[in-house]
């Protein structure tokens, strides 16, 4: 196959590519992307050679960005197929070849990821995502990772200034990249001996010093180490797993964290990396307070409880997790408060004195202000059947398991935090839609000018859209296609709510892009609200396992979790972020059995489960062929000190405490599945 392109007015390039088998459409697509990238690079080289320099504009960055994203998919596929090939009975030579291919594909992927981040810097799209870390644990985990690989050849001497508070607020992913790059480089410079790592505090900056008295490179070699591709010229660093842009990114990351970096070295007489980053150090108490969710209008919880000790305990616990409790102890006070306030949920002690608790439950569920508000019942003696028949969504036998209670509330809060986009150029209709969404307990994002919709939702998470068809440019058909063309909205459910006549023929142009169609003249608001609820609730239901197993070339996730509301929370978060292919099991044994017959890209493992707990399941899965490097994220309720270490010792890749922080959870899922964050 040949591809020809011009690089200037007098020179052109003929690209010839040969293959033993027939070219596929995927090959053609990838070759086209490579050709576009080569054309731009050679054009710049030609201009530079002639003494002319053209400013790299936004369009070039976009070309590089799109090309890199296109090349990452085949690189990921190569790694995936080699992993499958590893499970076959290969000869030792074949296995060696397979591992070489896999290593080169992983190196390519690292280079592509670094190039992608460089283009983000060039286009100003990089940002700082500050999160808190426990500094000592964070550093210990990194050192442990490097120590295991080096065994006893290299020792680490870590010193953290006692004046530094235990917790630190910074961009943890960028700091990890910086430290991994510098420690990895240090290992190659030293080969054998001691690497010192010291961390001190200077005003509101942390100062990191990574050094050794042995090893090193010539002063001349290290002078420009942070320039792109400079690392490839340093002989001692050619065998590292670093990319040609690794040190460039380190410097850029440090700069964006309001710091600076210096490198000094003498041939075989030692070296020193010194860098600073800005951040906020915190005590354990400050850290705990800052991590709690802030109360908002969807955090109010009504507690109906006559026992003072129980109500106080409940209030303290709810406050701790960012909820705003209102406590009443009689039926009269209950009926009065629900007339003037709205709540995320109601916690009802069904055994109130001088009150028929079941009758009160019935009144609560029939009250218009609580139409979409879950009522959670508690009692000393179990009587779930009658409570569920009268509308309770959950039943706790006292003493209440507060861990589970917070999971239930988190589930309903996630549902009520759903955003519904409403678009209609007729203002009275738009106001009616907004009221319907608000009364259903969701957040309405309303817009009557269709041309402004994309600006309205550019930084928003949308769970459902209700769109009119008959509008000025862009009309409803065009707007639906524009919204669906964005990757993050590709699975967004859309309801068409229109008064347009004779639209049937026009619907063909958006066939498959919407879920429901309602006629304004014949639809009542109750029907629309019912469909809204079902659309929002569908995020909670995973697809059938057989359906997931049949699919090829998709990201597959296994969730092992025994508690119903935790299953719903995780499934909802995954599906809202386009991770559709999830298999859910409720014990470690089932998780192990699925892992034996299917290859998953990511496993989310609750550590406290019946039959086989998560620790045992993780250890067993790690012993399976093909699961040595599969990311496993441990989920543990209300983590105690030492839980994190236990999870990692069992074979988990990472760890997330419950209640789950939505952003942290999705960031980690995207990180380990190599999806765009």
TrEMBL record:
Residues 66-281 form the Histidine kinase domain. GO terms for molecular function: phosphorelay sensor kinase activity. Residues 300-413, 419-535, 556-673 form the Response regulatory domain. Keywords: Kinase, Phosphoprotein, Transferase, Two-component regulatory system. InterPro entries: CheY-like_superfamily, HATPase_C_sf, HATPase_dom, His_kinase_dom, HisK_dim/P_dom, HisK_dim/P_sf, Sig_transdc_resp-reg_receiver. The keyword Transmembrane does not apply. This is Sensory box histidine kinase/response regulator. The lineage of its organism: unclassified sequences, metagenomes, ecological metagenomes.
